[in-house]
Amino acid sequence: MARSITTLVLAALSVGLTFGGADAADKVRVVTTIPDLKSLTEAVGGDLADVESLTRGTQNFHEAEVRPSMMLKLRKADLLIENGVELDSWVDVAVNGANNPNIVRGARGRIEISRGIPLLEVPSTRVDRSMGDVHPLGNPHFSLDPGLAPIITQNILDGLVRIAPQHRAAFEKNRAAFLAKVDEQMARWTKAMEPMRGAKVVAYHPSFIYFVTRFGLTQVGTVEDRPGIPPSPQHLVNLIHQMREDRVKAILVEPWNDIKLATRVAEEAGAKALVMASAVGAVKGADNYLAAIDYNVTALVNALR
Amino acid sequence: MRASGIVVVALLVVLIATPALAQDAGALRREIEQLRKQLEGLTERLQRLEAQPAPQPVAPPPVAQPAPPGTMQQRGPGGGTGLSAEELLRPRQPFALYQQRGSGQLLFDMGIAGDFVASVTQRNVAKANGGTFAGQENRFFPREVELELFGQIDPYARGEVRIEAGEEAPGAETSVHLAEATLTLLTLPYGTQVKMGQMRTRFGWSNQIHEHDLPWIDRPNVLRNFFGGEGVTEKGVEVTIVPDLPFYLEGLVGVFNGDNETAFGRGSLRDPLLTARLRTFFELTDTQAIQLGISGASGQTPGEFRSTFAGADARYKFRPESWLHPLVTLTAEAIYGIRKIEVLDETGTTGPEGRTRDRFGWYAGLEVQPWRRWAGGVRYDWSQFALMPGREWAVEPYITFWPSEFLRFRLAYKRTERDRSVDFAGNGGSARIADEVLFQGTFILGAHPAHPF
To answer: Cβ(B94)–Cβ(B110) under 8 Å?
Structure first.
């Protein structure tokens, strides 16, 4: 009898250990706040990471609505990757509703991707909301600047290794392979954009400042009067006048912004309104990180040619 | 002889010179007097100047340079912040403090929400205090000015404090009180969290929402009738669990003092107010989602009679692809209450059992937001009264305008009809039928936490 019980206990323990081993071998469950980071994390994590994004590329990340479905994704996450610089600070509300101690602020499973990023448009004077929805820490739309891919992927790598150190070599190999692709594409993009160097553009919202700066373009204004504030008629009149003077050929607009208004302003100024991939998945054909940048480069080359 | 000549010459010189000397001495005295006065004046001026603080050299204001992420701002000797007295005295707005969070100056978020409302109604409704804001009819007043402080306490817990001020009676001194103060333990096992302190309990959908965040100017009638104008704000503990399921389900139980005077009022943990809630959520498509919840609350009245409520709520949103805001939002909530009330027996004393009284109420609201800055909607209310017999219904169409994310104006018309006037007549007025025009102006200064679905 005693032997039977011992056998049963040992069998139960074996089953438990087997299942425990299976859990440990599972993929790292990663949730990112925006799809750009999802695409980059998939590139670094490869088959060893299961990645979901809380938002879609067609959304305005500033004003994402916190839904319980976000909490469901976060409930099971080993790692939460957020953009930072107050682009996605709404994620705190979702984390608080997810009851997952692995990803609360300060936990091992929480990383902010803006660490080490040389931010642009950092206010050098005191800011307040009379300037609109200005970001006191700097412009947060850096994720689609291919020149920053090495820093962003390094931060992702650090986060993945923290959760699954046994896969460090695989993650590093994936990252190196991805950055090699970025380098290869970068040479092509730079060559394509070279004739446009110095060209002046206008953006609807300051979402593309990292991108245009990377390729030597100059952003001379925004359709928004101030970030997040709808433009006044006087502002639009001044902007059209300025665009004509500066011979601006394109207004860069996000798919979620007022494309009709951008088109009207562009027509008045003799320019084109370009719907850009403001994020991965924002437009058709921009299904991953490299494709999104490729889409933007092609759109700009065609418009500014 | 020769000596006599010298003496004579000397005398002549003296005689001739004496008037001249006398004249020089006078001039000299005047000059000395003038110099003395000048000296006194200069001495006095010097003393005055010495009494004043030394002037500071005027330097251009330093240009604020943001610290690199993750670094701490350099501090002055002695661990001070390095700010001059002038900088410390300069008035600051929450946003300015908020801005400095990145450099380690402030480790939590803060903001102020201001909510001002106005009500215009018939004179007889005002006399009977039968308007939506009872006692504040035909007035413009600060309903709720709220200071919000929130953030991580440490790696394990989060804190939230809301201090509120508002005018509670016409012309009364604005009172300040603690609206909420909670501590939430975030790192508990098995998908659980514990929230403790003073809080708006999560009974139903709208009770947990502060006045300035509601999608309407006023709290729905059923909540005001059953739980009072402020809703259910209690002191105690809530435990939530989000089990690891393929769909979202949140379970909640709460234990509170039961201080709410309208619905409970026992105010003792020996006979606590117990609450429970289940909430689930389904994304029907990429553009449509619905949240469903059921809630329960049971406590005791001061007379030790049981008071129990059950509620159900639903909220649906349709947000077309790429839209920044929902096009259609539907909200509905129903509450059923059953409680025993004191009744006087034939001798005029309170009976031992009391009488059971069940009550029901509900509301449904539709909001359409075709443009980013404009929305319009309507809410219909139907509710019985908590203790007295009778019922009321109301309809409230409204429009909302947001000049920016942080500023909102709302205008509404509300018609309320009650089936009896006896309880809504006072001071020679009557509020059986009330027509009201309501206005709301709301601003947010500084940080404000995002709101869930």
So the answer is: yes
Which amino acid is present at A107?
Answer: A
Instruction: Tell me if B452 and A128 make a contact (CB, 8 A cut-off).
Output: no
Enumerate the residues of chain A whose CB falls inside 8 A of the CB of residue B192. Answer: 99
Any idea what DSSP says for residue B66?
A: P
Instruction: Give the residue-averaged pLDDT of B112-121.
Output: 96
- B329 band by pLDDT with thresholds 50, 70 and 90: very high
**Residues in B touching A117 (Cβ below 8 Å):** 69
pLDDT band at B340 (very low <50, low <70, confident <90, very high): confident
Give the best residue of A73, A91, A104 to mutate against chain B (max B CB count within 10 A). A104
Question: How far, in Å, CA of B118 to CA of B308, rounded?
Answer: 34
CA B202 to chain centre: 19
User: Is A129 in contact with B99 (Cβ distance < 8 A)?
Assistant: no
- Say whether pLDDT at B280 is over 60: yes
| Residue B328 phi, psi (nearest 5) | -130, 135
**In terms of CATH, what superfamily is A192-304?**
Nitrogenase molybdenum iron protein domain (3.40.50.1980)
pLDDT of residue B414 exceeding 70, the answer is yes
Q: Which two tokens stand for residue A134?
A: 């200005």
Regions in chain A scoring below 70 on pLDDT: 1-25
> Do A192-304 and A24-185 fall under one CATH topology?
yes
B44 against B8, higher pLDDT: B44
CA distances from B364 to A109, B205, B207 (A): 41, 12, 15
- pLDDT digits over B44-87, tens only? 666 655 554 443 333 333 333 333 333 333 333 333 334 455 55
Q: What are the CA-CA distances from residue A142 to residues A50, A148, A206, B120, B303 (Å)?
A: 24, 8, 11, 50, 63
CB of B304 within 8 A of CB of B331? no
For residues B68 and A122, give the distance between their C-alpha atoms in angstroms, rounded to a whole number.
11
Closest residue of A to B158, CA-based? A96
Give the pLDDT of residue A136.
Answer: 86
Q: Closest partner residue to A124 among B63, B289, B321, by Cβ?
A: B63
Q: Do the beta carbons of residue B220 and residue B363 sit within 8 Å?
A: yes
B450 to chain A: closest CA residue: A90
The whole-number pLDDT of residue B321 equals 84
Which residues does chain A have within 8 Å of residue B406's beta carbon, measured at their own beta carbons? 129
- Domain regions of chain B by residue span: 109-446
Residue A64's Cβ-count burial label (10 Å; 0-12, 13-18, 19+) is buried
Contact A76 B188 (CB under 8 A): no
| Structural domain boundaries in chain A | 24-185, 192-304
Determine contact, residues B42/B36, Cβ cutoff 8 Å.
no
ipTM: 0.77
pLDDT at position B41 is: 65
For chains A and B, CB pairs below 8 A equal: 133
Q: How confident is the model at residue B428 (pLDDT cuts 50, 70, 90)?
A: confident
CATH of region A24-185: 3.40.50.1980
Which is higher by pLDDT, B288 or B354?
Answer: B288
Mean pLDDT over B161-181 rounds to 91
pLDDT at B369 over 80: yes
- From the candidate CATH numbers 2.30.42.10, 2.40.50.1020, 1.10.533.10, 2.40.160.10, the one assigned to the domain spanning B109-446: 2.40.160.10
Evaluate if residue B144 carries a pLDDT over 60: yes
B248 vs A138: CB contact, 8 Å cut-off?
no
Question: Two tokens at A202?
Answer: 């206008």
Of B65, B95, B404, the CB nearest to A228: B404
What is B4-47 written as a DSSP string? Answer: HHHHHHHHHHHHHHHHHHHHHHHHHHHHHHHHHHHHHHHHHHHH
